[in-house]
Amino acid sequence: MKRRPLTALVHELLEPLLHEGAVAVDATAGNGHDTVFLAGGVGDRGQVYALDIQDDALANTRRRLEQGGLVARVRLIRGDHASLLDCVGHENQGRVAAITFNLGYLPGGDRSRVTSAATTIPALRQATTLLAPGGRMTILAYVGHAGGRLEASAVEEWANALGAPFTFREVRPPGTPEQAPRLLLIDRD
């Protein structure tokens, strides 16, 4: 039996939260796959904020958005996810339906540039202030690079300490190998 990619599962878990006029955030735009998905779900009146620290990532994301005719729905921001709240805007606190993080490195890019707990934990703290009631945050923590397991453990420790109105769980489909990325969900009641 072929395993479904975790990225497809992320989209499945976020899709019910997206609707015309929704606000969403791709905190680590990478190659733009999640940004395009979110932009498709928020409709013409919605807004997606997609940020990345790497110019290549933003260029890749823009190309995908242009191919899908979705550029007008997305604000591309060159910024570190540790500055998430400043990048997305304090006016969006409590308004964001869906937030996605893909931790690790830019696929096809410089593998020496990776996310780390030092920037990810502050980003996640800020992300919780952005989530609307009923909103969801997904975190795909890739563990196969230097520091990846340490970052994933720090994220899980942080998430386990969250209290109401947030709930945390890990989604691990049957047969998922130990070295596979970890999919973590945070829901706001």
TrEMBL record:
InterPro entries in the record? MnmM_MeTrfase, SAM-dependent_MTases_sf
Q: Which UniProt keywords apply?
A: Methyltransferase, Transferase
Q: Do you know which Pfam families this protein is assigned to?
A: rRNA_methylase
Cross-referenced Gene3D superfamilies: Vaccinia Virus protein VP39
What does the record give under GO molecular function?
methyltransferase activity
The protein's matches in SUPFAM superfamilies, at most eight in alphabetical order, are given as: S-adenosyl-L-methionine-dependent methyltransferases
Q: Name one GO biological process term.
A: methylation
Report the domain of life of the source organism: Bacteria
The identity of this protein, by name, is Putative rRNA methylase
Q: Which organism is it from?
A: Aquisalimonas asiatica
